[in-house]
Amino acid sequence: MSLKLCSACLLGVCCRYDGKSKPHQKVIALLKKDVLIPVCPEQLGGLSVPREPAEKKGARVIDRQGKDVTQSFTKGAQEVLRIARLFDVQQAILKQRSASCGHGQIYDGSFTGTLIPGDGVTTSYLKENGIEVFSEEELP
Length: 140
Ligand code: SF4
Fold this sequence. Notes:
With 140 residues, the chain is α/β, with parallel strands linked by helices. It has helices spanning 25-29, 41-44, 70-86, 121-128; strands at 3-7, 35-39, 54-57, 60-63, 91-94, 105-107, 115-117, 132-135. The strands form three sheets. The protein has a four-stranded parallel β-sheet with strand order 2-1-5-8. A two-stranded antiparallel ribbon has the order 3-4. Strand 6 and strand 7 (115-117) form a beta hairpin. Helix 3 crosses helix 4. The structure holds iron/sulfur cluster. Residues 7-9, 15-16, 40-42, 95, 98, 100-101 line the site of iron/sulfur cluster (SF4).
């Protein structure tokens, strides 16, 4: 049995910007053998549910109304790392394409559904601090 962080929305927690979740059966099935610690960096950064969707634009994160929410996203990433350290977690399964949790691909900041290579704010921060990150789509 191993311990991993997991985007809470992948486990069915309604923490997304639209008040919904994104349960993923392969991730939920992992609970039979692993302990998954649910985290939502955007909530941990102080953002509400529901909230305006936000996308990375260069080094900043901007919501659909044009508000700069970089500080909340950064705080959320720091809180997730704090939880990783508390539980001595070395791996995280994070939600693909999110401005916080995305791994390898994120939206480009234009709110047009256009994808570009890159990582979300929490994913980058965890990787910089030695945590291995997979998206739900990268699970075997
Ligand atoms: Fe899911 Fe991450 Fe977005 Fe929270 S921040 S809703 S965990 S993708």
